[in-house]
Amino acid sequence: MDAVGARILIVDDDAASRRLLDVRLRALGCDTITAADGQEALATLRQELPALMLLDLQMPRMGGMEVLRALRRDALDLPVIVITAHGSVEAAVEAMREGAYDFLPKPFDPHHLEIVVRKALEHRGLVQTNRLLRDSLDARTSEILGDSPAIRQAIEVARKAAAAVSTVLLLGESGTGKEVFAHAIHRWSERREMPLVIVNCVALSEHLLESELFGHEKGAFTGAHQTKKGKFELAQGGTVFLDEIGDMPATLQAKLLRVLQDRTFERVGGTRPIKADIRVIAATNRDLDQATKDGRFREDLFYRLNVVRITLPPLRDRMEDVPVLVRHLVIKYAAETKKIVRGVSVEALARLQAHAWPGNVRELANVIERAVVLCAGDRIGPDDLALPGTGPPTTLPIAPHTGNGDFHFQVKAHKQAVIRAALRQTGGNQTKAAEILGLQRTHLVKLLRALEIRELESTAR
Question: Are the folds of 7-135 and 139-313 the same?
Fold first, then answer.
């Protein structure tokens, strides 16, 4: 964390010491505020959120040790450099046991002061970054999987967008991997070393979402007992991912527009403008074009968001990616459950590739996780899958092995067998067969053509 612009609270009952520290810190580019004793310091902390505190230990009314204990009691995350009289090492050691980050002996050496302050600010920056990274790093940070033309095109656009600072709008059905793409764009960008902060715009009420995004000042509303930084402030230098942006309330749409236009914002209840050095990635499964025409989404905000537009394909449009996705998910869930599951059978894969996946990759992940848990052997079979509309293997018999060792040939043969069995079961009625297979009828028709299944095409539809 750079010292330039850092807000530092100086707490010392000696006016000359306060002035000296103020001059030295402002020369480093810091923004300073002062307090003459511990009580005034705690009152200031209820209104301000400094990046660092310089705290004298020997003060009337409330000394530095009491302030440190109050900070720890209230769980205030603030690095403190205590100011000690010359030779009082014991007091400095005790202060560090109470939570102080470092100490600074009087009289001040300007060079030592600069080193200690920069080190403390750097430590604070690392702690904040690590905390945000821990909050955001989970299974969704995995690499984008698939080699279909549709996903390759989306990846190509995402890589180009990552190299710029423009706003990115990710569109697509639920479960298509919009958050995975957001992680990837951030990871490929020059902001990769800074935080990626995720905000779900539909998970919170309008009031809470406003506070979550912009932060609030103490007393801004009932329950605001202390000042809080919002996601925009915590993500300085990094990326903010606004998920489900299509559900953002109209009043917050106006405030977000200002952030994108002016690159500044104010906390709820505040008047001081705060710089927003952030890159915004937004995502929605809504039709924003139609929402804009209907007046449910601000047109000016839509144009600000729709700079680089990436539409993610549903899984049914990239079924050739199912095998690689399945392989990745089996490895992942086998490791999590500590089970020895090495893959799926050809029959099970055929069923997975015959399903329409209305819930997309998220639905596939749920099916594979359940199959790994229920699998009794080292390979997932058809009985381990819980796909809607499919019965046990006896309902949809699987073709016997042909002896052809080519994997793709075997998969195609089994997909043909599954579909033909469903058509025979329904007397050739494609609509009912699609229901049995858990497919949309249009997707079944595409499979009939792709798999060259013609003998039942002329029967009742």
Answer: yes
- Token readout for 120 is 């403390």
- Residue 18: its H or E element: helix 15-27
Contacts of 424 (CB under 8 A, 6+ apart): 456
- In a 10 Å sphere around its CB, with 0-12 CB exposed, 13-18 middle and 19+ buried, how is residue 460 labelled? exposed
Rounded Cα distance between 314 and 306, Å, is: 20
Report residue 229: phi and psi, to 5°. Answer: -80, 140
CB atoms within 10 A of CB 436: 21
- Write out pLDDT tens, residues 1-46: 566 678 899 999 999 999 999 999 999 888 899 999 999 998 888 7
421 φ, ψ (degrees, to nearest 5): -65, -40
- Ordered by start, the domain boundaries in the chain are 7-135, 139-313, 317-450
Please tell me whether residue 35 adopts helix, strand or coil conformation: strand
pLDDT tens column, 273-319: 999 999 999 999 999 999 999 999 999 999 999 999 999 999 999 99
DSSP structural state of residue 297: S
pTM, two decimals, is: 0.63
Total residue length of the chain: 461
**Peptide bond just before 323 cis, omega within 30 deg:** no
Contacts of 428 (CB under 8 A, 6+ apart): 456, 459, 460
Strands 31-35 and 7-11: parallel
Tell me the sheet residues that pair with 345. Answer: none
Q: Is 419 exposed, middle or buried (0-12, 13-18, 19+ CB in 10 A)?
A: buried
Please state, in angstroms and rounded to a whole number, the distance separating the CA atoms of residues 374 and 330.
12
- Domain 317-450 belongs to what topology? Helicase, Ruva Protein; domain 3 (1.10.8)
Which residues, listed in sequence order, are joined to residue 98 by a DSSP beta bridge? none
Contact 201, 248 (CB under 8 A): yes
Instruction: Tell me which architecture the domain covering 7-135 has in CATH.
Output: 3-Layer(aba) Sandwich (3.40)
The secondary structure element, H or E, covering residue 280 is strand 279-284
Report CA 270 to chain centroid distance, whole Å: 27
Cα-Cα-Cα-Cα torsion 262, 267, 268, 269, nearest 10 degrees, comes to -110
Task: Kindly state which CATH superfamily the domain 139-313 is placed in.
Answer: P-loop containing nucleotide triphosphate hydrolases (3.40.50.300)
Most confident listed range (62-76, 84-98, 256-270, 415-429): 256-270
Query: Could you tell me where the beta strands, DSSP code E, fall in 77-230?
Result: 80-84, 102-105, 168-171, 196-200, 215-216, 228-229
The residue whose two tokens read 């937004």 is 282
Rounded CA gap, 8 and 450, in Å?
67
